[in-house]
């Protein structure tokens, strides 16, 4: 078997391997190829810096990387790792990483980051064996909003009209929900006003109800309530993915409106040295 980058591998072939690897996963995975094409484009996936383990013509395993510069670091974000069932137990992920780390360093990447479900102990141990350490814990929620309706002033705004420097907690968002990825995604953006002043903000993918960002400018219970009333005016069924566990007021506000914590994830990171 041999490891090489995926830059010359057909997208449909990658997807076939991806879906096989994630069959019977902890959470149901979408199966629409176009969904991943759009998502990975927004996340800045680069298949030249993504890698696969090949056994002849068979793609047995993969690591798919998005590449971007953030906070002064050149980062490779692992947006998907998997091995098809018949090749598991052969330390394929470790072998791919041994090749990938050398190649990423050669291309100036200074840090590698990934997300893993906290219950996936086998994967966590495998990543720790490569050298990754847990850096953040994220909580995910879903449910239907059913709160008192009120007259809320909500204004839809274009992405480039948002003053991102004044939207709190930008450093707490996971890769896919950072503004640098939302810029190329499929979100609608809203300011929520109270007494003619911007009080809060949210970004939502209306196709699937995922709230990509959700912030109040001042942490007060009434501000959070009005924010969720504004969200409810757009959609009642929502998902909120990867809320940093340190944001206690936000988590309390999410739980107060009846959304359920469905799954948690770790962010893990590995600093690369030449």
From TrEMBL:
Its EC number is 2.3.1.-. One of its GO terms (molecular function) is acyltransferase activity. It comes from the Bacteria. Keywords: Acyltransferase, Transferase. Coiled coil: none annotated. The keyword DNA repair does not apply. InterPro entries: Acyl_CoA_acyltransferase, GNAT_dom. The keyword Transferase applies. This is GNAT family N-acetyltransferase. The lineage of its organism: Bacteria, Pseudomonadati, Bacteroidota, Flavobacteriia, Flavobacteriales.
